[in-house]
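User: Please predict the structure of the protein below. I'd like the answer in structure-token form so I can feed it into my own downstream comparison script.

Assistant: Understood. Taking the following sequence of 110 residues as input:
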Amino acid sequence: MEAKALAKFIRISPQKARLVADTVRGKSVEAALNTLRFMPKKGARIIKKVIESAVANAEQNESIDVDSLFVKKINIDGGPMLKRIRPRAMGRAARILKRTSHISVVLDEQ
């Protein structure tokens, strides 16, 4: 039985979040949370929160054993970009793209 959690419009670039997601994909939930707890990246804090949400969703279903959960799938998709400008020389402007991410986690029993 699967448990899912989704976080949308998170202000981190998908490229940076995928670096963190690749380290916990396929691990047990306990090992993944321990790894993320000591990882010094912004994405680790965010993904840890989403995994904890998926575990809480799994606890609502009595047929799931929470101790045997592992990270089956973790996807980081790009969300909408906030478009900003930076003033440049001679009256010109350069575009800044502030990227967002959609993070989805699927946990399953072993």
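That's the full token string. The chain has a mean pLDDT of 93.
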